[in-house]
Amino acid sequence: MVNVLRPLIVFGGSVLLTLLIGWATDRLLRKADARHSETPMWDLLRRGRIPYQLVLCAAMLRGSYDEARVLEGHSAGIGQTLTLVLIGATAWLLIRIAAAIVETTYTRYARAHHDPARVRRVRTQVTLIMRVVAATVGVVAVAAMLLTFPAMRAAGASLLASAGILGIVAGVAAQSTLSNMFAGLQIAFGDMVRIGDTVVVDGEWGTVEEITLTFLTVRTWDERRITMPVSYFTSKPFENWSRGTPQMTGIVFWHVDHTAPVELMRERLRDILRECPAWDGRDYGLAVTDTTPNTMQVRALVTAKDADDIWTVRVTVREQMIRWLTDHHPYALPRVNTADATLAPGFRAPDGNPRNGEAPRRAHETPRTGRG
To answer: Which of 18, 269, 289, 310 lies at a C-alpha separation of 20 to 30 Å from 135?
Structure first.
């Protein structure tokens, strides 16, 4: 009877105590979250309840397993397994706690500062910092797990002795990876590009959606994802439309006939912009910028608060101006001139026929020289 009750008390008590402590901790975090609704810290910490309970259970079982006297021939292996579980759960819990602290700090910063550019910059830095923290904790946890094995302890001295050579070999073998990692840190703290920035890369217009230590993802306007190494943004030029102020100036071109009413087009542009909510009201203008033998090029300048609105303003102005010309001034639209060309006075065609009203000459008639 004692052999049955002893393991039941040890294992059952550990699980029951783990659930009880986990429930009590969760209740305390809920009350703290209700009292301090201005910060998401306590709600974020509740996301770590699973690794928290796993740490408690593994620690209790590791400390009381010998008292259960179950499978005593395998106690070393079971104890080793519980130790590995404890180390892994502790690393998981530390990552969750670090994520809660960093996310809370970012939330407070975003609420205190209303500059979207600065908020996006901090968001980029926070994301990369969390990735570095998670990678560091993971590496330390794996190292701690490996050091629990006696064979790894014996090999530690030789590994440390050859660490310099291994570092050189790893650096040469992973040169591109390391360059991308350093480029990711440079982007995060050099304020070159941030999450949410509107960029143009290789002729593709899109928004930066994700930045890691090795790659960057751009979501294009047609919802495609372009994944590029972060080293690209430190070695090649690219357009960042969100750099500085997000305000932009857009250009709209039309090719119209030479008889187009430019002054009326300028007034119509003003009316179109007044009815367009995306126009920010800063500036506008219309001018003739070029001519060809058949048409002239008219350019309109419009402004908007950001890249999305400038696109809306441009397509609205282009569409409504063409519709207005079609309805009220169709002669201003470009057309192909099929009329006979007017030739210079005195020009004679190859067939000998005169042009421009010149009287036909007889075959024996010769031009006058100007003297009687």
So the answer is: 18
